[in-house]
User: Fold these one by one.
Assistant:
Number 1:
Amino acid sequence: MKIKNIFSKKEKNIVDFENLPQHIGIIMDGNGRWAKKRGLPRSSGHAAGAKTFERIVEDAGNIGIKIVTVYAFSTENWNRPKDEINALMALLEDYLDNGLNRLAGRDVKIHFIGDPGAFSESFQKKLMHMEKATENNSGLLLNVALNYGGRSEIIHSVKKLIGQAVEGKIKAEDITEKDIEKYLYTSGQADPDLIIRPSGEYRLSNFMLWQGAYSELWFSNCLWPDFTKNDLLQAISDYQKRNRRFGGV
Ligand code: IPE
Ligand code: IPE
Ligand code: MG
């Protein structure tokens, strides 16, 4: 593989560019605490987190990662105060209008995962427009998880399969993992090899429960807005030292 010339010698020594994870999931956590530490409103933390998101997606693409899934808003995040949700929605909408377009221009293919039904119609239109506008891009595939929950994703798949069973197209006893996988939001994609969670929390918070069955997990105390290219390289480097056994020996 040709390593891009934009990496310093030191950076090139951190990871083995021949043995990269194909798919990295990122739980972008810690925006609120980042803001609090600075005496700023939580919404400033989200704005700072959005900038980090843009940087890291670009870095991942340059490193040669094929798929990145970022957790941006969970099905449980609706439990937050209304003003924080409003600020987040405004930020997301602004990002759909401006920020994601910048990524689209860099050959990133954008795919939204989650249940869009909870968003306003104009918001949903923007999501669809963004997917359509980038569908022929051949660079990094970026899954943006919005109103996403691993459990609700599995329910979504099960409902589809029950519908087919009712129509007599499949038999319940014939259902396999492949059938469930077919109706996940990430259908057809490789499972995440590596899931990164900053902010000092050691949990998945409903992120990619099915797909993450054998993902390597990497945690760090850094808050998401402070996450750097070096942290990403370090996570990949640590991943490369793991021994993945998938239940074997
Ligand atoms: C993650 O940062 C962003 C979203 C969940 C939208 P948080 O807002 O959860 O930040 P902390 O965990 O409170 O610091
Ligand atoms: C996970 O972070 C969701 C996103 C980053 C979008 P949370 O902040 O919502 O997770 P918990 O509540 O700490 O588990
Ligand atoms: Mg959090």
Number 2:
Amino acid sequence: MTSECKSIVCLISGRGSNLEAILRAARDQGWHADGIQAAAVVSNRREARGLEIARAYGVPASVVPHAQFDTRESFEAALSEAIDAHQPALIVLAGFMRVLTAGFVARYRGRLLNIHPSLLPAFPGLDTHRRALAAGVRLHGATVHFVSDQLDGGPIVAQAAVPVWPDDSEDVLAARVLEQEHLLLPRCVRWILEGRVRLQGDRVVAEGIAPQDLLVFAR
Ligand code: GRF
């Protein structure tokens, strides 16, 4: 590993399958040898299954339980402390289910990445697969974006689109999208840490990446 190690901190709330996709890619692709390190996982819920995944991959995991704080600000102050201990180049919201204040987002501007299970700006918020089915869209998918103070509204890095078939159930559609999330998120993380993708003003600048890699059509 080089002396200029770039650290990632992942924030989770639950299952942790996107976290696992990142940790697996890091292990299988030898990110460590390229100076990229998954430094820590922080959950706002003790029962998050992702904590076990972190431990299985040998990544330090801790809990900052939001319910024990009186205000969003005091929760975020504790969260920042857990994050800043690692001086991360990137903080990945890998299924982190808390709305963050504008102050928190501003503090980590350009270093805060989220994955959302829809083709934003369609279907921000919760229950995206159910809403996509109800709306009758033919195309659905996932978006990786930098976080802004608009809920699920920040500048888009990359998207993966999947078809919606007439007989899809919510679970079937969710699984189809999730498969793409697990491919898309590690790639975006890697691009950002390599300096090939960055936030400039309100736009994402990508250098040395084929445009078709930023937009996946999966069937
Ligand atoms: C994923 O669908 C992600 O897009 C959304 O929350 C879900 C988290 O799943 N933000 P997991 O914890 O990564 O399995």
